[in-house]
């Protein structure tokens, strides 16, 4: 991680769960971290969990990744105040329960999932790439994907969520090719966790004997892929808790 010391990392969905863990890990590793979130006050509260030096490296910008104007404004602000983006962690993601693909009137919640999980990734990656390209930076784009972006579990209805994560898997490969064709050495990585203890997971799955990962496990994986040598690209990293059935 030494080569990233003092460089700028942007983390979407930074207010809780995996995003919050990644924000803290990167700030502790010496990076300047910009946390994007709708609940920006929760990102600012994370400073209380950091050392004084690391807390000074953490900044928050309000951003709804379903709104292109929010994304463009946030990355413009990062360019003006912090010099640009070196690392992007596309972590923002949502799922919508209580419906299936055949539920009447389901268009709005399903569209929210696609706008967040797919278009948010595309648009944030676009803005980060333009910043890296302008400054000739060999940056890194990391997608927080899911094991359901590779196979669809048969024991429950996940409605459109797996489709959105399959899209992230395809986007990662498409980005790898586009970055190669552009002649850059910018890396792109998909990290696909199994079940993680976050606010999005029902409480009954976070107690008892259900195997589950901690957000810090995923933050450790982010540090690992960022810490690889410049000529090494971890394209896909799958992380499961021991004993998981999915």
UniProtKB/TrEMBL annotation:
Say which domain of life the source belongs to: Eukaryota
Q: Which UniProt keywords apply?
A: Oxidoreductase
Tell me which Pfam families the record gives: adh_short
Query: Per its record, how is this protein called by name?
Result: Dehydrogenase
Q: Which residues form a coiled coil?
A: none
InterPro entries per record: NAD(P)-bd_dom_sf, Sc_DH/Rdtase_CS, SDR_fam
For the keyword RNA-binding, the answer is: no
Q: Which GO terms describe its molecular function?
A: oxidoreductase activity, acting on the CH-OH group of donors, NAD or NADP as acceptor
Q: Top-down, what is the taxonomic lineage of the species of origin?
A: Eukaryota, Metazoa, Ecdysozoa, Arthropoda, Hexapoda
Entry annotated with the keyword Protease: no
- Please state which protein family the record places this protein in: Belongs to the short-chain dehydrogenases/reductases (SDR) family.
């Amino acid at each position: 991680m030494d080569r990233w010391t003092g460089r700028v990392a942007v983390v979407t969905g930074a207010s809780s769960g995996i995003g919050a863990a990644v924000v803290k890990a990167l700030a502790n590793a010496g990076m300047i971290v910009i946390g994007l979130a709708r609940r920006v006050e929760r990102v600012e509260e994370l400073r209380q969990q950091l050392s004084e030096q690391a807390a000074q490296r953490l900044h928050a910008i309000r951003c709804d990744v379903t709104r292109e104007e929010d994304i463009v404004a946030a990355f413009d602000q990062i360019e003006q105040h912090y010099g640009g983006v070196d690392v992007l962690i596309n972590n923002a993601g949502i799922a919508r329960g209580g419906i299936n693909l055949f539920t009447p009137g389901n268009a709005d919640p399903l569209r929210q999932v696609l706008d967040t999980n797919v278009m948010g990734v595309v648009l944030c990656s676009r803005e980060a790439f333009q910043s890296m390209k302008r400054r000739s930076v060999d940056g890194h784009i990391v997608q927080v994907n899911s094991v359901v972006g590779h196979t669809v579990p048969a024991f429950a209805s996940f409605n459109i969520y797996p489709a959105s994560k399959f899209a992230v898997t395809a986007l990662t490969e498409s980005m790898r090719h586009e970055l190669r064709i552009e002649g850059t050495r910018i890396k792109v990585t998909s990290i696909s966790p199994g079940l993680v203890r976050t606010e999005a997971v029902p409480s009954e799955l976070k107690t008892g004997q259900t195997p589950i990962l901690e957000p810090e496990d995923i933050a450790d994986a982010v540090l690992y892929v960022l810490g690889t040598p410049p000529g090494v690209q971890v394209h896909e990293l799958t992380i499961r808790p021991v004993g998981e059935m999915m």
